[in-house]
Amino acid sequence: xxxxxxxxxxxxxxxxxxxxxxxxxxxxxxxxxxxxxxxxxxxxxxxxxxxxxxxxxxxxxxxxxxxxxxxxxxxxxxxxxxxxxxxxxxxxxxxxxxxxxxxxxxxxxxxxxxx
Amino acid sequence: xxxxxxxxxxxxxxxxxxxxxxxxxxxxxxxxxxxxxxxxxxxxxxxxxxxxxxxxxxxxxxxxxxxxxxxxxxxxxxxxxxxxxxxxxxxxxxxxxxxxxxxxxxxxxxxxxxx
Lengths: 115, 115
Hints:
Chain A is mostly beta strands. Chain A has strands spanning 5-7, 10-13, 19-24, 31-38, 42-50, 53-56, 65-71, 74-79, 88-95, 105-106, 110-114. In chain A, strand 4 and strand 5 (42-50) form a beta hairpin.
């Protein structure tokens, strides 16, 4: 298996622009997670899905952030409009062992820079 | 809210020695605790999971302990090698209502093994 796939790997954009991050989980995994990592706050959970349904979005910082999972093999995280404080590395992860707190498999991340 | 603390200072040790990393938590009693390794520019990689009824878990040169009284987990790497140099993240499994749950990550401790 190719593992969790994220695109793009790097994104540089200007404040106010829309940003869309993409994730393909490992086939057969029923949980998908979006995290954000910064030096100041570490790795924070933004939202997670189970069988394509959002379960917990309490970590989504503002209404500017939205996430969708239209099918079992694809998810997007959208920021609109983007702000410089959104600059971070965004990770997608997936897991399959029946709960949302078992071992997770992370993608390589998308490094977002908002100017 | 749940709080998880890892030593923010980097740990520098000599090759061949045992590295010991500490993870302390407050305001919660997790049923599970996990350790991940993260290399620069990459996503975290799962290493070990330990349950609250397990005092110790081993995997090759790795050993994890879980003391629910002290609210502490220790992560040991024996016979350390320069290739073990990385950041190690501790994560506790927070289980909420309806058996939904998520991982809460510590900030990580960077280990540097010198040849």
